[in-house]
């Protein structure tokens, strides 16, 4: 079946020519020349790919992106504009665009990128089919470890109170986002799921990203723009690494949690959103509160419901089933025929403690699938880079004369140990530990 592509551009000559070329290449093309026309076309049929002009008679394509991505999260969007610049490109990508092209567009390049987008969609469809063949099993739906069973039971109870905030705690890479998405599914999947990594937001743009801004609110605010709180209306706003949120924004978030109301940056009108706020952190927020880096009232408001997700090393019985599920997903993503683990690889999986948790497990499997073409994955392909397993750490380092070190002390020691094994290469150490680079730097400073 051919790929349905929606082309939104007010330059009718370019749109007609591009549509002709794309149809010749096998795409089913629908044309729209304004945002009004685009919304009407989207109401009739969801496209797999959207080619979207930035400046349209009735609005800015970049401002339309959050609405488009919220309604059609699986649709690939490519921005096309005659007014391209680096700032606009960054903004478009942040809002969910797959590609950003400047006019005059080489039609061969447009066709190539559209074809790649269609191929990626086909890979995702293969992934869905593979999951269906597994009986619809997802990573967290049938855990064996008692701690994970308890966490999922808590999520199912929490789903009956759709407005209350939820705080998910656990180590980096343990699966906090997966648990938040599971809550979204248990609630019926109504409304968008908007994921915000607070650590990745530039400090100068945090308020605008979350709450939006009015035209003229700051130098480059040429048009009003909705924030992610508005985009998430009726769904879930997932604030990952909430401990990184600046103190200056914590009061505004608290107001939104209490009243469901907020104002855009530079605005005077009070707006509302019925988004459920789910937050996640690997930090000890009680310590952050004690050290005046996090508001105590916000902490209590966020933790109305608190769910702890255990690290992978504490749910050993889930490792092999989880690895098998991830292996199916990765084979579909990489376009590879299904493979299995050798007996040696299974033994290695069962022994290894995975300090980077599920994220590290996935990285190990992806590396093995790329490097090893055989029908079964062997132990060598599953060996993590740098041989950073716990056996390489001196057990005596965990004990001092007064007794065992605290978990925080052990974590700091291990971060320094991994960095030393990788000869000071910080980016590689962060990846090996399954940490984001900002989180790794913070842990390094604490050590």
Automatic annotation (TrEMBL):
Keyword Ribonucleoprotein: no
Membrane-spanning residues: none
Keyword Nucleotide-binding on entry: yes
Keywords for the protein's UniProt record, in alphabetical order: ATP-binding, DNA-binding, Nucleotide-binding, Phosphoprotein, Transcription, Transcription regulation
Origin superkingdom: Bacteria
Pfam families xref list: AAA_lid_14 (PF25601), HTH_8 (PF02954), Response_reg (PF00072), Sigma54_activat (PF00158)
GO terms of molecular function: ATP binding; sequence-specific DNA binding
Entry's Gene Ontology BP terms: phosphorelay signal transduction system; regulation of DNA-templated transcription
Sigma-54 factor interaction domain mapped to chain residues: 141-370
Segment forming the signal sequence: none
Sites of 4-aspartylphosphate modification: 53
SUPFAM superfamilies found in the cross-reference section: CheY-like (SSF52172), Homeodomain-like (SSF46689), P-loop containing nucleoside triphosphate hydrolases (SSF52540)
Response regulatory domain location: 4-118
SMART domains for this protein: AAA, REC
Protein name (record): Acetoacetate metabolism regulatory protein AtoC
Annotated organism of origin: Myxococcus fulvus
């Amino acid at each position: 079946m051919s790929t349905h592509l929606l082309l939104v551009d007010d330059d009718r000559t370019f749109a007609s020519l591009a549509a002709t070329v794309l149809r010749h290449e096998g795409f089913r093309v629908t044309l729209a020349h304004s945002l009004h026309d685009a919304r009407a076309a989207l109401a009739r049929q969801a496209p797999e790919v959207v080619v979207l002009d930035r400046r349209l008679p009735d609005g800015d394509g970049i401002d339309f992106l959050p609405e488009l991505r919220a309604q059609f999260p699986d649709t690939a969007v490519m921005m096309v504009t005659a007014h391209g610049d680096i700032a606009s490109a960054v903004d478009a990508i942040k809002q969910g665009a797959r590609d950003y092209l400047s006019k005059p567009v080489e039609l061969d390049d447009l066709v190539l990128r559209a074809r790649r987008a269609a191929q990626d969609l086909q890979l995702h469809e293969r992934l869905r089919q593979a999951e269906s063949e597994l009986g619809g099993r997802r990573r967290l739906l049938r855990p064996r470890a008692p701690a994970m069973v308890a966490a999922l039971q808590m999520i199912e109870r929490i789903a009956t109170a759709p407005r209350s905030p939820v705080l998910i705690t656990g180590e980096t890479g343990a699966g906090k986002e997966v648990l938040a998405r599971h809550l979204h599914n248990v609630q019926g999947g109504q409304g968008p799921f908007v994921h915000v990594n607070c650590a990745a937001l530039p400090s100068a743009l945090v308020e605008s990203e979350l709450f939006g801004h009015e035209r003229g609110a700051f130098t480059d605010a040429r048009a009003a723009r909705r924030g992610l709180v508005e985009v998430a209306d009726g769904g879930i706003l997932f604030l990952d690494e909430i401990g990184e949120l600046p103190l200056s924004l914590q009061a505004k978030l608290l107001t939104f949690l209490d009243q469901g109301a907020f104002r855009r940056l530079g605005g005077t009108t009070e707006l509302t959103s019925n988004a459920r706020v789910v937050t996640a952190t690997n930090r000890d927020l009680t310590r952050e509160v004690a050290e005046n880096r996090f508001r105590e009232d916000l902490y209590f408001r966020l933790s109305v419901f608190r769910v702890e997700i255990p690290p992978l090393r504490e749910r050993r019985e889930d490792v092999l089933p989880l690895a098998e599920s991830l292996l199916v997903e990765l084979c579909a993503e990489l376009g590879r025929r299904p493979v299995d683990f050798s007996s040696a690889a299974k033994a290695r999986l069962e022994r290894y403690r995975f300090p980077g948790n599920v994220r590290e497990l996935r990285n190990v499997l992806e590396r093995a699938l790329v490097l090893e073409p055989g029908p079964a994955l062997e132990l060598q392909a599953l060996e993590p880079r740098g041989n950073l397993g716990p056996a390489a750490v001196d057990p005596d380092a965990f004990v001092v004369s007064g007794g065992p070190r605290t978990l925080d002390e052990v974590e700091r020691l291990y971060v320094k140990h991994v960095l030393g094994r990788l000869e000071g290469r910080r980016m590689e150490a962060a990846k090996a530990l399954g940490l984001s680079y900002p989180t790794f730097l913070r842990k390094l400073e604490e050590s």
